[in-house]
Design brief:
Number of helices of chain B: 24
Number of strands of chain A: 0
Structural class of chain A: mainly alpha
Radius of gyration of chain A: 16 Å
Largest sheet of chain B: 6 strands, parallel
Low-confidence stretches of chain B: none
Distance between the termini of chain A: 13 Å
Mean pLDDT of chain B: 85
Number of strands of chain B: 18
Radius of gyration of chain B: 35 Å
Helix content of chain B: 40-55%
Number of helices of chain A: 4
Mean pLDDT of chain A: 92
Order of helices and strands of chain A: HHHH
Oligomer: heterodimer
Strand order of the largest sheet of chain B: 5-4-3-6-7-8
Chain lengths: 127, 567
């Protein structure tokens, strides 16, 4: 067992689960989507991205790009949230909530792709 | 570039993760710690937006103060922690990046990737020079003078840095790596479509051999020039078809023998194969008679083999009593007066101080000269660093290893026409060589002339081609007229004209040139560009042919001709 691989898989799975946790629930109800969960999803996603740095293989490149996509979508969701609450002052209306959650849904898709790659990679590895 | 980028990213993983974690902890803490209003009532904690804003300017030590409102003591407590951990995180990241930039292997990767990009971008023909010590330096300077591009590989990093200080006109990438590794050769452009040849001129025989094999396998199309010392390695190279094997000992011995048997022909070869731009060497006239050769190593053997000419008797002085069967042998090094006398130094006409130790050679030469002041002294100089000593001593003929190799390489590279011309010179009689030598000496003002070739076709000489198409004959004499004043001749000599396998040596001024002729010239460096103008510019060519001075381009000519017709 390789500790580095454990950490790597841990962060990829953790990023996906946190993202899923934020995403699940009615799309337009702000009380079902916790801001701390979004924050945790962003942080774990960024750490997962950095862990994927410096791999020149094809699979490594796809890994990194899925992570970058997830980062962008999650940060966009956070910015939308911040704009809604602090800039325009509309607050978390159902429209704003649904756009934040749908952005995080896109990130979830990227994270799922990342998960699939991780699983495929593991299955293909032979002893 | 790619590999460097990934290397940086890989090394930056830990600091970046640390930074993300520290930021996350700080921001999270700020969103949990309650604040206080101006009137002392408790206020809700900062939102994520404000927390991130605050941490962003605090972590980078900008410090706008407590916004949007004064903090509670609990918040201040937490911010104190945040300041320390985030500043720590940034410092660690920056220090890691700086140490990465200073890392030797990282810098080498950076230099290598920059080098390979520069090589890939080369659009003109170039040579790959492996080993840029004394020999390589001489070759590079000569190539630069000839206007040829080159790529340099050398194992010595300091030497490569020194190359930056050399004032080369052409753009020449250099890299400090081992040239015998095939990956490095590939990076230096062995398979580059513009690579014209590889020169393996390192000091290390094994390295040269490895380069030759690599190039033969990686790109069999391009020629390899290798420098060798020992005949065994030379045989090995010949076995897999190395194109040019440069053995300085053999070459020098051959020249010495030629200088004895045909001094004028040798003088001519020496002028034509010298390094362009260096001072013209003094004429060598080694006499015929009894010669003493000190040292029977590879150099001594080559000398003995080539000097076995009619009228020459040889005595070999060697500490191991080695020598050819038919010559006299004396045991010793040659530094002792008694040994020299025993070898017959008093009756000898010449001595070859040919050991592999420069100081020993000088000592032999000085001792011999003392015993017999009329002696012709040939000394072998192994290291260019001893130039000053040898210059002060003034041997009649010095064999400088690096210079012989460099001259040989340049004369091979310059043009294949030259080697055919030199072969003809070796057959020619002495008076012919003498006339040509005096002609060359008069035009080149004490410097070794540049030797170059021109192919007369529509591409390289469009003006000549056009003239010939319209039926106007172009002669050698016309080409050699100065375009500033056609009464004077350019300081250059047309050595040969080659036409469909026929060679015309030293064509007369009235010799008619045809399309497809290859011309070999020797002359001052400036002539090359002047002649280029004559070959390419119809007006210039017309002037040297007829003396009429056309002015302007096609528009002027069109108007001028119209006017002429109208009046």
């Amino acid at each position: 067992m390789n500790l580095e691989k454990v950490v790597f898989a841990f962060f990829i799975v953790f990023a996906a689960t946190l993202n899923f946790g934020f995403f699940i629930g009615d799309i337009d109800r702000p009380e079902l989507h916790n801001v701390y969960e979004l924050f945790a999803a962003i942080v774990v996603n960024m750490i997962a991205t950095v862990l994927k740095f410096g791999d020149r293989t094809q699979i490594g490149a796809v890994h990194l790009s899925t992570s970058l996509v997830a980062d962008i979508q999650l940060i966009a969701a956070a910015v939308t949230w911040g704009v809604a609450v602090h800039v325009t002052g509309t607050g978390m209306t159902p429209e704003m909530t649904s756009s934040v959650v749908s952005l995080s849904g896109g990130a979830l898709l990227a994270n799922i792709v990342s998960l699939v790659i991780l699983i495929v990679e593991t299955v293909m590895m032979r002893r | 570039m790619n590999s460097v980028f990934f290397l940086v990213l890989r090394r930056m993983r830990t600091p970046l993760i640390l930074l993300i974690v520290f930021y996350a902890i700080s921001v999270l803490g700020l969103t949990l710690v309650p604040g206080v209003n101006a009137d002392g009532t408790p206020a809700p904690p900062l939102s994520f937006f404000h927390a991130f804003y605050f941490i962003s300017y605090t972590a980078t030590t900008i410090g706008f103060g407590e916004v949007p409102q004064a903090f509670s003591d609990a918040q201040r407590l937490w911010v104190t922690v945040c300041i320390y951990i985030t500043v720590l995180g940034w410092t660690y990241s920056i220090l890691t990046l700086l140490s990465l930039l200073q890392d030797k292997s990282f810098q080498h990767t950076l230099a290598a990737s920059r080098f390979s990009r520069r090589v890939a971008r080369i659009r003109t023909p170039f040579y790959l020079v492996c080993g840029c010590g004394e020999t390589g330096g001489l070759i590079c300077r000569a190539l630069d003078l000839l206007g040829l591009d080159f790529v340099i590989l050398d194992t010595n990093a300091q030497r490569v840095e020194e190359l930056d200080l050399e004032d080369f006109i052409t753009d020449d990438p250099a890299l400090a790596v081992d040239a015998s590794v095939s990956g490095n050769l590939l990076m230096a452009g062995v398979r580059h479509p513009k690579c014209r040849g590889v020169l393996a001129v390192t000091n290390d025989e094994k390295c040269n051999l490895a380069i030759a094999i690599n190039v033969r396998l990686l790109n069999p199309e391009i020629p390899v020039l290798t420098r060798v010392r020992s005949p065994a390695v030379a045989d090995n190279m010949r076995s897999f078809g190395t194109h040019h094997i440069v053995n300085a000992y053999e070459r020098f011995a051959e020249y010495l023998a030629l200088a004895v048997s045909a001094p004028e022909a040798f003088r001519l070869i020496e002028i034509l194969t010298g390094l362009p731009g260096s001072p013209l060497p003094a004429a060598h006239r080694p006499p015929c008679g009894h010669w003493v050769v000190c040292g029977y190593g590879q150099f001594g053997q080559a000398i003995a083999r080539y000097m076995s000419l009619p009228g020459i008797r040889m005595t070999i002085i060697d500490p191991d009593l080695a020598g050819p069967p038919d010559s006299r042998l004396v045991k010793g090094t040659g530094m002792e007066a008694s040994v020299l006398q025993q070898a017959g130094i008093m009756e000898a006409v010449g001595i070859v101080a040919g050991s592999d130790n420069d100081i020993a050679n000088l000592s032999i030469a000085m001792m011999a000269k003392q015993l017999n002041p009329k002696l012709y002294v040939v000394s072998r100089q192994n290291q260019a660093a001893n130039d000053l000593l040898f210059e002060t001593f003034r041997a009649d003929f010095s064999m400088v290893h690096t210079r012989v190799v460099a001259q040989e390489c340049i004369s091979i590279l310059t043009t294949p026409l030259l080697s055919r011309f030199l072969a003809a010179v070796r057959q020619a009689d002495e008076s012919w060589s003498k006339t040509l030598v005096s002609r060359l000496e008069s035009i080149c003002e004490g410097l070794v002339p540049l030797v170059w070739d021109i192919l007369l076709d529509a591409d390289t000489a469009p003006a000549v081609y056009k003239m010939q198409q319209t039926g106007k004959p172009v002669t050698v004499g016309a080409l050699m007229c100065d375009i500033a004043n056609r009464e004077t001749c350019l300081p250059a000599v047309v050595l040969t004209v080659e036409r469909r396998g026929h060679t015309f040596l030293l064509p007369e001024d009235g010799f008619l040139l045809e399309n497809g002729d290859a011309i070999l010239l020797a002359g001052q460096r400036e002539v090359r560009s002047t002649l280029n103008l004559t070959l390419k510019n119809v007006n210039a060519l017309d002037y040297v042919l007829t003396g009429r001075d056309h002015q302007g381009g096609w528009l002027w000519q069109y108007l001028f001709e119209k006017e002429g017709r109208g009046s």
